[in-house]
Write a structure and sequence with these properties.
This protein has 213 residues and is of the alpha/beta class. 37% of the residues lie in helices and 15% in strands. Strands 2-1-3-4-7-6-5 form a 7-stranded mixed beta sheet, with no helix packed on it. It is globular and about 40 Å long. The two termini are 27 Å apart.
């Protein structure tokens, strides 16, 4: 009985404190700092709609930092080259294998580079397309057709690609979608409210999946 009470106290204590998410500052020349208003807006949306308690300002973390283990969600975006050295690869791989989650959002122009970086992270695994029946598209908002299209780019269909570890999605790569642009302030990309809402709701689904799996 005493052990159960201690466990209950720990769970309640954890729920009282804010979570924190982080933006990955990577090397290679890509603009890791793109979309500066996107994560704050997503955080605000999640805290108001799905009752998360995420700190309003995301942290900035480098891939080789031990601090990445403090964040349940890492976000990586940009338009160009992404490079991880060996230490960064090992640290990121350990983070993902230990329960962390990396969301890579192609802001247009990073696809050819990031696929190579992902392959170095998980050389024995292939990116696989996540079916629309996956829980990440079901709750709390329904996306029966899978990942929504936010920006046109090359007019290809949007794809949610992933790496799974023991049946758990640990790396999500959103391609030909550009969720982050949809999360930004309305005047940045002049997206209609309907488009921004789709992007924010999909982002909320990602957060919901992380905190419930």
């Amino acid at each position: 009985m005493k052990q159960k009470l201690v466990l209950l106290f720990v769970v309640l204590a954890m729920n009282c404190f804010s979570q924190e998410i982080a933006l990955v500052k990577y090397r290679g020349g890509g603009d890791w700092y793109a979309n500066p208003t996107s994560l704050p807006n997503l955080i605000r949306f999640c805290n108001s709609t799905i009752q998360t308690t995420i700190k309003g300002k995301p942290a900035i973390v480098e891939p080789n930092s031990p601090n990445i283990f403090s964040y349940p969600y890492l976000h990586l975006t940009g338009h160009g080259n992404v490079v991880f050295n060996t230490d960064e690869e090992i640290n990121l791989r350990n983070y993902l294998n230990s329960g962390g989650f990396l969301h890579i959002d192609d802001n247009y122009g990073m696809n050819e580079y990031i696929r190579k970086a992902i392959k170095k992270l998980f050389p024995a695994e292939d990116l696989i397309e996540i079916p629309s029946t996956h829980p990440i598209f079901q709750k709390p908002f329904s996306f029966p057709n899978g990942l929504p299209k936010i920006h046109e780019h090359d007019n290809k269909r949007p794809q949610a690609l992933g790496i799974f570890v023991k049946n758990r999605l640990v790396l999500l790569y959103t391609y030909e979608c550009d969720l982050g642009d949809g999360w930004e302030d309305a005047e940045v990309n002049n997206d209609p409210l309907e488009v921004r809402q789709k992007a924010l709701k999909m982002g909320a689904n990602i957060m919901y999946y992380i905190f419930n799996n």
